[in-house]
Design goal:
Keywords: Ion transport, Membrane, Transmembrane, Transmembrane helix, Transport. GO terms for molecular function: zinc ion transmembrane transporter activity. It holds the Pfam family Cation_efflux. It is a multi-pass membrane protein. This protein is of the alpha+beta class. It folds into two domains: about 15-155 and about 190-255, Cation efflux protein transmembrane domain (Alpha-lytic protease prodomain-like, Up-down Bundle), CATH 1.20.1510.10; about 160-190 and about 260-330, 2-Layer Sandwich (Alpha-Beta Plaits). About 55% of the residues lie in helices and about 15% in strands. The protein has helices spanning about 20-45, 50-75, 90-120, 125-145, 195-225, 230-255, 265-275, 305-315; strands at about 5, 160-170, 175-185, 280-290, 290-300, 320-330. The radius of gyration is 26 Å and the shape is elongated. The protein starts with a strand and ends with a strand.
């Protein structure tokens, strides 16, 4: 039995734009918090419940984005912590999931408050409310521009590190040869950063709420349709709830190592490895970070080959950042 290994290889599977995204989210939080303070302060000074309510509404989105910012910070600081066996790349998906839950709660609260407003209408100061909604929309559009995910589809290939373990086992009735190889090919695929996406959805949801409010208030002031304001609140709540559900499913799938129906990575691996002689007997593929996937591949072959032989076949698949190959001699083949 011979074992050779590279000690101290990296398990850093953060997204390619991790630090850029982290900086932008902190900037958006500062922008949102400043707007929140101005609105609550002005609302208190001028006795405007509309201003105060919008200020507290912005505080909920700022709090949700704080989850994303802290997740980026924690993932970066603990990226080299060996206790995180496959790195901290999936922390963003956990934050995205938590943020989606908050988004769903905001949508439900919006819907409930709108229903109460429909049943018990209040007098609306249209001019002031429209001004607040417009300013809020501008802040949200600037935030959305800052949080756009425009670098998630770049590929950066880095030469990896490999360590292999060879084991030979003799038994009375048969002889099996097993070789294991772990490869670290740090490539960035087009993986979506669910942490950034959750923050983006929060500001887009807020922007959509502002647009719906502006439309409702303009029509309300022109035709006296005061019911439109709470009605738009219900519509907005339902749309945001749908977005929250999509984000929950997406981030939850990553956390549970679920391979989405449209993901063709397992098929790519099979096409690269399998021949008339070589067949894959066991295959596990899962995401370990934005644009990073890990795979465990068990290959049965009639002629013993070094795991690096199969590793070379997988080298062109950039999404694979951590590969373990096990080679077993199949005498029956």
């Amino acid at each position: 039995m011979s074992i050779s290994s590279d000690v101290g290889h990296s398990h850093v599977f953060l997204g390619s734009d991790h630090q850029r995204n982290e900086r932008r989210i902190w900037l958006v939080i500062a922008l949102t918090a400043a707007m929140m303070v101005v609105e609550i302060g002005a609302g208190t000074a001028y006795g405007s419940m509309a201003l105060i309510a919008d200020g507290w509404h912005m505080s909920t989105h700022a709090s949700a984005m704080l989850i994303s910012a802290l997740a980026y910070l924690y993932a970066r600081r603990h990226a080299h912590n060996a206790r995180f066996t496959f790195g901290t790349g999936k922390l963003g998906d956990l934050a995205g999931f938590a943020s989606a839950v908050v988004l769903a709660l905001i949508a439900l609260i919006m819907g409930w408050e709108s229903i109460l407003r429909l049943l018990d209408p209040v007098t609306i100061n249209f001019r002031e409310a429209i001004a607040i909604a417009v300013v809020g929309l501008v802040v949200n559009l600037v935030s959305a521009w800052l949080l756009r995910d425009d670098h998630s589809h770049h590929h950066h290939g880095h030469s990896g590190h490999g360590h292999s373990h060879g084991h030979a086992h003799n038994h009375d009735h048969h002889h099996d040869d097993h070789h294991h190889d772990h490869d670290h090919n740090h490539g960035h695929g087009d993986g979506r950063d669910n942490n950034l996406r959750s923050a983006y959805v929060h500001v887009i949801a807020d922007a959509m709420t502002s647009v719906l409010a502006i439309v409702a208030l303009l029509l309300g002031s022109r035709f006296g349709w005061t019911f439109l304001d709470p009605a738009m609140g219900i519509v907005g709540g339902l749309v945001i709830l749908q977005w929250a559900w999509g984000l929950l499913r997406m981030s939850g799938a990553v956390l549970l190592d679920f391979i989405p129906p449209g993901e063709d990575l397992p098929d790519e691996i099979r096409e690269a490895i399998e021949t008339d002689e070589d067949r894959i007997t066991d295959l596990h593929v899962w995401q370990v970070g934005p644009g990073h996937h890990a795979a465990i591949v068990a290959v049965a072959t009639p002629v013993l080959r070094d795991p690096s032989f199969y590793k070379a076949r997988l080298a062109a698949i950039h999404e694979l950042s951590h590969v373990t190959v096990e080679v077993t001699v199949d005498k029956a083949a």
